[in-house]
Amino acid sequence: MGNLEKTKAFLLLSRVPGIGARRLGVLYDYYEDVTNIIDAPREELLQVGIPEEVVNLIKRPQWDQVEKDLEWLEDESNHIVTFDDDLYPVMLREEVSAPPLLYVRGNVSLLNQRQIAMVGSRNASAYGKKVAYDFAEDFSKSGIVVTSGMALGVDAASHKGALTGRAGTIAVTATGLDRVYPARHKTLAHQIAENGALVSEFPLGTAPITENFPRRNRIISGMSAATLVVEAAKKSGSLITARYAMEQGREVFAIPGSINNPLSKGCHELIKSGAKLIETADDIICEIGSLFLVTDKKSINKLEPKLDTEYNDLLDHIGHESTSVDLLVEKTGLTPDAICSMLLILEMEGFVESEAGGVYNRIR
């Protein structure tokens, strides 16, 4: 069977009620090729542990819905990335509940570039939105993709800030990619599709329903090496994303606020629970290189900035012995923020490596 047949099989099974990520994983492990599941004998599917009502649905495939997906796929900006595809996010694949496929509109290579999740209140204060915008801009300029959920407030500000940088942004949606939610973000969604990527596990036509938003949140945290919470009330959905990140073994950062601001309560709660208190983007950028260790290096599409004179000058001051940021500030006259951003890019490109204590070694 060719790749098209494999994609069709994934599309079909993803639309069968009762087949979630875990059940499909069991089937995939048993049959090894997803196309074999469609043609498997009814009795065999029952023996594998698939309920009879689900087997009946598999045997009555809704090919008309799959054809609509394939028509959508004809647009060169649209992609369907299946679980066994090299383009599937490496970090997300590690999760037990990783979705069997992702619909993507835009730059599909971003899925495996270095990401930080940024989340926060939909009813963010003007201060919260400015902080989100500024942090996201700094991350993107440093070569880190900002991943969020395209909601109002912090999410939107994070996407907009990231769009001003070089790395771009990913918006994970809780609807099918033929819809925009909230509707007022139609222009923002277009900008993200042009300069980043829209991602969803939900089939085309899926409306925004409450139970889909936590599922979206687990993808946001699952694709990212770390999660930053900007503003969040005590019962904020952002805390769900943070909890997913903690369960996935990812770093969680939180920005503190006034003790009198209800939108700071969730962040303060996270900090009490072990999240790192963050005051500047530089707090994360200086240590973030070590968070991006993935097992499949070949799948990472690295950004390739040109090493201009400033970068080469910085490299000249980094020896093969441990060199601190403070020493580089003293030698170059650059600010700590500028040096940390440059070191991150140099580390991403394999010129230097970081060690505990915030020191760096030149490796090439």
Can you tell me about this structure?
This protein is of the alpha/beta class and 364 residues long. It folds into three domains: 1-66, DNA polymerase, domain 1 (Orthogonal Bundle); 108-292, Rossmann fold (3-Layer(aba) Sandwich), CATH 3.40.50; 304-362, Orthogonal Bundle (Arc Repressor Mutant, subunit A), CATH 1.10.10.10. Helix content is 43%, strand content 13%. The chain is built from 17 helices and twelve strands. It has a nine-stranded mixed β-sheet with strand order 1-2-6-5-4-3-7-8-9, sandwiched between helices. The chain has a three-stranded antiparallel β-sheet with strand order 10-12-11. Helix 8 (126-141) runs parallel beside helix 9 and helix 11 crosses helix 12. The longest helix has 16 residues, at 126-141. The chain is globular. The relative contact order is 0.10. The model is unreliable at 293-306 (pLDDT under 50).
